[in-house]
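Deliverable D4.2, example record:
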Amino acid sequence: MNDNHSIFKDEMAQMQITKTLILALALLLSACGDPVQEQIDAQIPLTEQRVQQLGQMLDEGQIRNAKFIKQYAAQVAQKSPQLATIADEFRKDATTQGPLYVALLERIDLVKNQPQMFASKQARFEELLNIYQAADPVLFSDALSDPLNVLADMSDGELPRVNAMSKNQSMAANNAQDFGVGEQLIGNPAYGQWQTDSNGMSFWAWYGVYRLLDDVLDIDGFGRKRRGKVYYSNWGKSRNYSYYHDYGRTRYSSPTQLRKQTQLETRTRKSFESRGQRFTSAYGKNRSGASGVSSQSKTAQASASRFSSNAANKSKFAKTSSSASKSKYSKSNASFRNSSSSTSRGFRRGK
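Output generated by the structure prediction step:
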């Protein structure tokens, strides 16, 4: 009997020790929790909600430049029936089927379901913040100024540009070359991509219906193309103002797209240097031409260099600490979150 009692006491003692060890391990794991993962888990629903709210505003016609896009597209199609197809494609930019909005959805999906695509957890968190800010209704309206102003240019001057100076004014201010109707969208991965010809030169190729910008609008009275191929090196040196390139690139591009842009620039620069020629970066300086852009856009522009350099260098993502993230982003994120959601002033193709 005493032996059984002793065995029972030993078993109870072992169970108590096991429970103590489990509790200690749980406390240790809790104390050593991953703060960046916690930030990601907290930010995902906030970013998803923000993008969903933007979609509702687009559906309800509450985004300023989206409303103008619908009006401009209808007028262009009525005035020039041969442009109805491309005008209708641009009309989608004012809806949740547009490339800018679709891009935000796809970027969220990538963050949630393909974490291996990011250099670090910090990179995932920063991308969530980037998407959150891009979904600000005022900032998104500003981003729509590029397709809107392409429609304005398609009207042969009958429709005024919005949030931008006239083409002649901005060309003079920037000593820019005329790359034809649609030049605001050249280099924007939502509408096309840079391809390489047999000579190793990168040139712009439109996606799908956007090719009509070349096939219809770039043809002179003799059936000849006016601008021909737009090569990256020439465009980068002589491009005119566009919202995407001068304000929105770091908000409306995925980290992968920013990295590809940096790689293209680096490759082109090395090619020029190998021939003893000078290369001028497309992003060496901002072009003049904006008119009435929001404070949110100015904030995005101010942080552009940091975001683009992070996208170009994966190691910078990995080295960023969570405390640095909080200090760098808390003010910026708060300013976007506090903006009025009632005020209004897509990435399958771009991957």
